[in-house]
Amino acid sequence: MIQLNIDGKNINAREGANLVDVALENGVYIPTLCYVKGERCLGTCRVCSVKVNGATTAACSVPVAHDMKVEVADPETADMRRALVESLFAEGNHNCPSCEKSGRCDLQAVGYEVGMMVSRFEYRFTPHQRDYGSEHILLERDRCIFCQRCVEFVRDEASGMKIFSISGRGRHARIEINVELANKMSAEQVTRAVDLCPVGTIVEKKIGFNQPIGKRKFDIKSIRERALEGDQS
Fold it and tell me: What pTM did the predictor assign?
């Protein structure tokens, strides 16, 4: 066991544990979009940025160590996290009222948590082509934030091959799906892929708005409240 300090509070933790998890276990919420508890760190979204011993870094990539000093509520860093979330909204086309994931979208919920009202960046409204090729999955590319959860954590059960990938770079980047492998996915795999996606990019066909308003993930409680109560889904 080691001791570290988070926002002035001394905390005992197991050496090497993930900083995001340690903070949450001690009542300090750090927003994340690419991190999945129990899986390896991706570090793609940077929304979990905090100061560790004075240096800004992605909290999900940090194993805790003795005498570590972590600043989560630092105003400069908090504004940085908000700017990152705002940029994700500006780069994609996110129309929350018409989205199947509204009320259970991690990006939407984190936007509330970081205090975003409107993006400080110019909205690009870049058109993206939907992909209807799979029998079970629709790719709504307008909403993709390139977190890479689906790329890294959804694989064909028989071969271990990746079902999702990212092609291109910069403004030409887009999420892709291997239709042949996707068509072999079990119903459980499809559901897991949909749930892993923090936004509404991976949509199960013939399902749509299957959860009414008032019964969705974040309708009653904020993402912070759910996280602190132990809901990591």
Answer: 0.85
d(CA 91, CA 146): 11
In whole angstroms, give the CA distance from residue 120 to residue 133: 36
Q: Could you tell me the CA-to-CA distances from 170 to 146, 157, 167, 173, 208 in Å, in that order?
A: 11, 31, 10, 6, 30
pLDDT at 51 over 70: yes
Q: β-strand 202-204 against 137-139: which pairing, if any?
A: antiparallel
pLDDT 10s digits, 77-126: 999 999 999 999 999 899 888 888 888 899 999 999 999 989 999 998 88
Distances (CA, A) of 82 to 10, 129, 165: 26, 28, 27
**In the Cβ-directed half-sphere of 170, how many Cα atoms lie within 13 Å?**
0
Q: Which residues contact 196 (CB under 8 A, 6 or more apart)?
A: 36, 149, 150, 153, 154, 202
Distance from C-alpha of 129 to C-alpha of 164, rounded to nearest angstrom: 16
Strands (DSSP E) found in the chain? 2-6, 9-13, 49-52, 55-58, 69-71, 137-139, 164-167, 174-177, 202-204
Q: Residue written as tokens 């068509």?
A: 183
For the packed helices 75-91 and 106-113, what is the interaxial angle rounded to 10 degrees? 140
